[in-house]
Every structure is written in C-alpha cells, then in structure tokens.
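Sample intake sheet
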Amino acid sequence: MRVLLLPLAMAALFLQTFSAGAQENLRVGIIGLDTSHVTAFTRLLNDPSGPDHVPGARVVAAFKGGSPDVESSANRIEGFTAELRDKWKIEIVPTIAQLAAKVDAVLIESVDGRVHLEQVKPVLEARKRVFIDKPLAASYEDAREIARLASAKGVAWFSSSSLRFYPGVAASKRDPKLGELIGATVHGPSPTEPHHPDLFWYGIHGVEMLYALMGQGCESVTRVNTAGTDVVVGRWSGGRLGVLRGIRDGKADYGGFAYGRSGIIPVDPARGSYRPLLEEIVKFFKTGVSPVPPSETLEIMAFMQAAELSKKRSGQAVQLSEITGAGKQ
C-alpha cells in the first residue's frame, strides 16, 4: 500500500506544479496598437531581464486596430505595430476573434474609447478576462453596456488608470496622521480630444486619483471651465467634497491633498513605472477578481459625464442619478 501511495503523491504533486506553472505563464493578447502602453506593457511582461519585470504573463499576439480620425492614433500606430512585431516578435493577427482564440486574457489598449464596446464583444463571446485601458468607453452608456454584456457572459473585466496604483496615492489614504477622510483635492493634466467628452480623454487620470482617495458615493458634480483650467467639485454622501483641478495651461503635474479629521496629507504620486498597474492586471487575470469594483468604474464614468453636462449648463450642479437613471421607474 505504501508503495502505491508514493507514486500517487508524486503524481498529485506533479499535477499541482504543472497547474501552477500554467497559471504563471498566461498568454496575453493586445487589441489596439496606437498607444505607448502597448510597448511599455509588453516590455514589462516579456523581458525577464528588466529591473521592473512583471512575471506571470506574456504578450503573444496583437490586433492592430486604430482610429484614422484621432490624430494620436493615426500618427503612432505603425510605429508601435512595427516595434511589437520586429523587436518583441509578437504575432499580429487580422481579427479580434482570431486573437481571442490564441490567448488566455486580453488587454484592450485602443486609445480611442469609442471603439472599446465593439472591440470587447468578441472577447466576451470567447469568455476571456479583459483589462480595458482608460477610458473604459467614450460615454457612460457604452460603459454600462460593456458591464451588462460582461455580466451576461459571466466574464470578469477591469479598467483603471495607472495613477490609482502609484504608491504615493495609497500611502496618503493609509497615513495614520490623516484620521477619518473627509475630503480630497487632486490636480493633473487635462488636455482634450474632440471625439471624447473632455475629462474622458486625459482628465480621467486625475479622476481616478480622486476616487482612489474618496471611494464611491458621489451624488452630484459641478464644473467651472475655462480654456486653460477645469475645476470639478463632486459632492459625496455625508457632505464630503472631492475636487479635481484639470490643467491645460501652465505647469501640469499630478498631486493633491487628502483632508482628514486629524490631519492634512499631501498626495504625491511620484510617477514612474507601470509596474504597479501590471501587477494588478496579472493578478486579476489569474483570479478574476478586479481590484477596482465595476460599480466604482461605472460611477467614475458617470462623474465625468455629469461634469460634461455641468459645463453645457454653465456650471449648474448635475446629479449623478440623472446620468445613471438611478431611482427612475
């Protein structure tokens, strides 16, 4: 009996080791080769000799995509495609369906949020976990539809700016000198693009920082807009205020303050590697658990669309429920 137990134990150990090894080497596909994220992410995942290498997954295939009416897409897509193909030996495939068949998980990196809904459909159909880079979509309606389709297919998804995971942001909220958080102010660059609501294009980085501090629960948004600056004030439950200053004129960098009952703590993202975000993505691909609840991501989209509506209404406060339809029969 003991003679039989040893081979069985060894077989079980082999299967366990094999399964763990398989999980550690996920095959990843990229959709949309028109942002510097695709080359940066591929380097972090595929170069084990790099000092900031993120183990556990490798990019193996990509779909080119691209948006000819978005300048930053049309002008950069060929260069990024060539680098992935020639330097990193990534297979470029002609359709998203073919990509999904070759990989375990997907990164949607298209810089144009308008195309994300259509691009994610074949991924969800193939039931592959997916990270959708900022912005999740170019409207709250598209974002809500992505969430609905993913839920219907039982597929986990995740979307976030890299700023949320920079150590300085989380450290500010955890600082024991802060006490109970009662508000926050953040600032960051906020250039615009004509095919996206203003904050959706780049201001979303600052909005993600704000939500990393404040969490869910924003009830209304008021926006003051000039050619060079936006000031967006969100009113959270309990009367807490979260403020975003979006900068288009003058020095544009990231930072802010967290306001607590015991102290005021500076928020210094100390920008650097995408590694913290990639670590969260790989962990998500393996577990199916998003570090940012989908409900929070949808609220972020509603926050930015409410800010756009407030601008059109000359700074009037807009209830998020007007965007989400919450409370309507």
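Comment: Residues 2-24 form the longest helix (23 residues). Residues 1-23 have pLDDT under 50 and may be disordered.
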